[in-house]
Write a structure and sequence with these properties.
By secondary structure, the chain is α/β, with parallel strands linked by helices. It has helices spanning about 5-20, 60-70, 95-100, 105, 140-155, 160-165, 175-180, 205-230, 245-260, 270-285; strands spanning about 25-30, 35-45, 45-50, 70-75, 95, 110-115, 120-130, 130-140, 175, 195, 235-240, 260-265, 300. The chain has 10 helices and 13 strands. It is globular and about 70 Å long.
Length: about 300
């Protein structure tokens, strides 16, 4: 992430981590995302993050740590059921991914926000009055980024695609308001996108790479802004591995600015669900557990 975002995050991130590390317990969170398994180890000295392919997950190491160090293990993520649970310690505590994402604002002392976790796909959580509500989601996210990068550019490294996009020209890819109208429309400025990938002109790989960034960030950003406005919230918290991409973050921030909505980015964004799991764990410790089941802190809106 670029220095502008880093500078804006420093104080907030210190608060976030300070609250988490005030514990004598050794806690390991396993987040089984759609693309990778991520682990975050928390003790009194700080945090240690790791990322694994599913077929490289270190079951023996996890079991050894749990046995020798009395480590508490939290398990979450969309694909938690894909792990071989019989090869993990029997007392693993499992939380839903939505509960964990909804708990991130509590750790950074936000009273209300919209949490947007941009992983393979993107869920939206409306957080108010200590409760997170799963508002919905979109299939646009990191999976889209990787898939389009491969199909359009034959590139598989997201860092390489981000670097390629820095030399791109969006005017070769997107139709803008100025291309369609002779003047600004409502609050929309003439240089804003009217239609992604709508230009049928010659374009370089860098132009296409930037177009991929634009389509993903603008789609998610506009959805997040509308959800925030409809719920009377003036900020959006972004996390998920895609937020490690500085161009994506810049574009999201621009989208929020159209609606005077504050953008919040956390450090180590790919491990946001793990941070939320820690927060949820500490919260649940204050409440009695019955039969190992955890009380849900969120609700889901069903059509």
């Amino acid at each position: 992430m670029n220095s502008k975002h880093k500078d804006a995050l420093t104080a907030r991130d210190v608060r976030f981590c300070d609250k988490l590390i005030k514990t004598d317990e050794l806690i390991l969170c396993i987040d089984c995302g759609s693309s990778f398994v991520k682990t975050l180890l928390l003790d009194a000295d700080g945090i240690l993050t790791q990322k694994y392919e599913f077929d490289q997950f270190p079951y023996d190491y996890i079991n050894s740590m749990a046995e020798k160090n009395k480590c508490i293990i939290l398990l979450t993520g969309a694909r938690a059921g894909h792990l071989d649970l019989f090869r993990l310690p029997a007392d693993v505590i499992q939380y839903s991914e939505i509960d964990c994402i909804a708990s991130i604002p509590k750790s950074i002392r936000l009273e209300e926000t919209v949490v947007v976790c941009i992983g393979t796909g993107t869920p939206f959580i409306v957080y108010k009055n200590g409760v997170g509500v799963h508002f919905g989601g979109t299939g646009i996210g990191g999976g889209t980024f990787l898939g389009l990068s491969y199909r359009l550019l034959k590139r598989e490294d997201p860092k390489e695609v981000e670097q390629l996009a820095r030399n791109g020209d969006l005017s070769k890819i997107n139709l803008t308001i100025a291309d369609v109208y002779q003047q600004d429309v409502s609050y929309l400025k003439s240089d804003l996108t009217a239609a992604n990938f709508a230009k049928r002109t010659e374009a370089s790989e860098s132009d296409i790479a930037l177009g991929i960034h634009s389509m993903i960030s603008e789609t998610i950003g506009m959805m997040a802004a509308q959800i925030a406005r409809s719920n009377g919230i003036d900020n959006v918290l972004f996390c998920g591995a895609v937020c490690e991409n500085a161009l994506i973050c810049d574009s999201l921030e621009k989208c929020m600015g159209l609606f005077n909505i504050k953008s919040i980015f956390i450090d180590n964004p790919g491990f946001g669900t793990c941070f939320g799991a820690f927060s949820y764990y500490f919260e649940q410790k204050k409440q009695p557990h019955i039969g190992g089941h955890q009380t849900s802190a969120t609700a889901t809106i069903r059509a």
